[in-house]
Design brief:
By secondary structure, this protein is an alpha+beta fold. The chain is built from 22 helices and 26 strands. A hairpin with a 2-residue loop joins strand 7 and strand 8 (117-124). Helix 2 (74-87) packs across helix 22. The two termini are 46 Å apart.
Length: 708
């Protein structure tokens, strides 16, 4: 007797959806159990991580923004390591292995605006033992993270006397006698030894000694504040001393807050009803520390601004704290890793090739329009899809080869589409990835009928559904399900997503020629944050230039990526077809203004006379600011492109994959309750792993799912 395989419809092609497909098909013989179909709007996979190659401009890489992987991304790197190993690219071929596709990035740069001058604060982070994506050994808990933080505090305290010219030295007599006795301190003590003792007590028994450690840390905080005030009064406040003070002040406030609010014993969510900056201040961090470059840099990193407005910072204290500790203390190898081609080339092309080889079927140009419940209201009963274009042949082959590397093009491969429809798409420069596209109207005008639709039915076309779109898409396509799932409705209403913006410029001068001077002696390129609005994050991505194919004479020597949140409070109806162009125009104007007015703080060779526009690569040979037209910019306003936030008090409305409220609907993405609970690649991978586990019980374990 044969058994019909379960038919699984995966909706969307982002990180969460592709991770679910990867793990569902990772067990030998999976084809006996499942038939998997992926339905994707437009011509490419990737969601907000999609990238494309522009064939008209040197096969250049065009991204949604700046994508950097962190060294604590254990699940994401595990996915990549396994995918590249199974794909088995021949040795010597481009990006044959995962460690050729991802290279360590150690230099982190921050900017500070002091005395009406921008100052660069560059930090060459250390390499740590191990590699991301491999099994961790030993203990790994919140208490261990706090103990490691106290280890950094000790190192900074030991560094203080040489920089400040005065030690933080006291005798045990200045401690409360009862506290000294309880702590077991005898004889003269200095700040370093007190911090060492606090760390030892914490490692011995974090719960039993919490109150003693808390008292010692509060005493250290008072000593630090007194020393800082004395130095400022006497004018001894150079950058090196001030920055060390900020680091120690933040570390002490974090450690004190974790103990005082019982984060160590109850988890990070216990403080998610407080905004992070307010939480720092409530535990003694000085105003300068709360508003410092390290804190602003993390806000910029996760676009933690309500409605994209930098004047409205908003993120849960627990979620932000967990993320900061993971970034700074939880990494292995390097703190960051830069991809060596576009994210589409490095992540989604290998996954597409591998999954297709395994037997997953991909259906491009299928735009999800609605999910409807069955008669009982317990399952998804129907899935409506808009068939955006007709194909010339049987299937669509989405990838192109650039210098031997499979890549996604920046627009559909029109030669594989129905010729009349392809001509119309090109005539009107239709964006098939935009909800505001006027393609349905153009199609009706040209062909006298609406775009065809396709309805998938429960029991005929699918049995189970993986919803891999962004949380911002729920209200558009899943509203009919809300009546039967109040939890899904609440998740849609309370878990926010913010628009982002980005631009890329290709320049003839290299980084040194631009005038960047913020790298240490080894010359590593930076990843920089905390800069001017509206583009506060910048990274040169020169490692990508060798993957592009520029004509002789137009070869750039540097490519720079800029990004930030994009302020949108109310999105217009989708029949406002001019909205995307209006937003893109705002991004372009802001980018030009930044280059002309602010970039000289980073690129010192720009000078005070304005940006030298002839630096920009423009094969068309335009003059002046018109050369910017040959660069790349975008406003990521579509629901599938927005960045998922963690506003105060919202994590409790996140759902795990199997908590959709409908028996056959499984969720995937970075908007789920993953234990990370923040918008990033790692959380999206964890969401996809949850979906696979809920469907088939595999994988058994998801690193970090319990909150650390």
């Amino acid at each position: 007797m044969s058994v019909q395989p379960r038919r699984i419809a995966i909706l969307g092609g982002g990180v969460g959806a592709m991770t679910a497909a990867f793990w569902l098909t990772s067990r030998e013989g999976w084809q006996r159990d499942y038939q998997i179909d992926v339905y994707q709007m437009g011509w490419r996979l990737g969601g907000k991580g999609a990238s494309g190659r522009n064939a008209a401009l040197g096969e250049r890489i065009e991204e949604h923004g700046l994508h950097i992987w962190f060294g604590f991304y254990d699940n994401a790197f595990q996915l990549m390591r396994q995918a590249y190993a199974e794909l088995g690219r021949p040795p010597g071929s481009p990006l044959a292995t995962w460690d050729e596709a991802f290279k360590p990035q150690r230099l982190v740069s921050l900017t500070e605006y002091l005395e009406e001058v921008w100052r660069v604060w560059s930090i060459l982070t250390p390499l740590m033992p191990g590699q991301p994506g491999t099994a961790r050994g030993g203990k790994d808990s919140i208490a261990d993270a706090l103990a490691n933080l106290l280890g950094w505090l000790q190192a900074w305290l030991a560094e203080w006397p040489a920089l400040a010219g005065t030690p933080l030295a006291v005798s045990a007599a200045t401690l409360d006698d009862a506290l000294a006795a309880r702590a077991g301190l005898r004889g003269p003590q200095d700040a370093v030894s007190v911090a060492q003792h606090a760390q030892a007590l914490l490692r011995e028994d974090s719960l039993a000694h919490a109150s003693i450690v808390l008292s010692l840390l509060r005493w250290l905080q008072g000593v630090l504040h007194d020393a800082g005030a004395w130095l400022q009064r006497h004018g001894i406040w150079p950058d090196a001393v001030r920055r060390l003070y900020l680091c120690m002040d933040l570390a002490l406030a974090v450690a004190i807050g974790m103990l005082a609010d019982e984060v160590v014993s109850k988890g990070f969510e216990v403080i998610n009803d407080v905004e992070f900056s307010a939480w720092l201040a409530s535990h003694g961090a000085q105003p300068a520390s709360v508003g410092s470059a390290p804190v602003r840099g993390f806000y910029d990193l996760v676009f933690a601004y309500r409605d994209g407005d930098p004047r409205q910072p908003d993120i849960e204290a627990g979620t932000m704290l967990r993320g900061m500790l993971k970034v700074g203390l939880g990494y292995r190898g390097a703190i960051m890793y830069k991809m060596q081609a576009g994210m589409g080339d490095v992540v989604f092309a290998p996954l597409q090739l591998l999954l297709e080889r395994r037997g997953v079927r991909f259906h491009y140009f299928h735009k999800l329009t609605e999910l409807r419940p069955d008669a009982a209201g317990t399952c998804v009963g129907e899935i409506d899809l808009q068939q955006q274009v007709a194909l010339r042949g049987e299937g669509y082959q989405p990838l192109v080869e650039v210098k031997g590397l499979p890549c996604w093009p920046s627009e559909p491969l029109y030669g594989q589409l129905d010729p009349a429809q392809a001509a119309l798409l090109q005539q009107y420069a239709i964006n098939l990835e935009s909800q505001w596209s006027d393609w349905p109207q153009r199609y009706r005008e040209a062909f006298g009928q609406p775009l065809p639709t396709r309805t998938l039915r429960l029991g005929e076309d699918f049995d189970q559904v993986v919803f891999g779109l962004s949380v911002a898409s729920l209200a558009d396509v899943a509203a009919p399900l809300f009546e039967h799932s109040p939890a899904l409705r609440q998740c849609s209403e309370r878990v926010a997503a913010v628009a982002t913006q980005a631009y890329q410029v290709w320049t003839m001068p290299d980084l040194q020629g631009l005038g960047w001077q913020g790298s240490p002696a080894d010359g590593e390129e930076p990843v920089l944050s905390g800069f001017t609005e509206p583009f506060d994050t910048w990274a040169p991505m020169d490692q990508l230039l060798c993957r592009e194919s520029w004509p002789a004479g137009d070869e750039p020597r540097c490519v720079s990526y800029f990004c930030n949140a994009f302020a949108v409070k109310d999105y217009p109806p989708y029949d406002d077809h001019g909205f995307p162009a209006q937003c893109a125009g705002q991004v372009k104007a802001a980018a030009i203004a930044q280059l002309d007015n602010d970039i000289r703080a980073l690129w010192t060779n720009v000078g005070a006379g304005g940006f030298p526009w002839h630096w920009l690569v423009d094969p068309a040979g335009r003059a002046g600011v018109a050369r910017f037209d040959a660069q790349y910019w975008r406003a990521n306003v579509d629901p599938s492109e927005r960045y998922v936030q963690s506003r105060v008090g919202t994590t409790r409305f996140r759902l795990q994959s199997g908590q959709s409220g409908l028996a056959n609907l499984f969720l995937a993405g970075d908007w789920l309750k993953t234990g990370l609970d923040a918008g990033c690649v790692e959380a999206a991978v964890m969401g996809g792993m949850q979906a696979s586990r809920a469907l088939c019980g595999w994988p058994l374990a998801i690193a970090g799912e319990q909150g650390w």
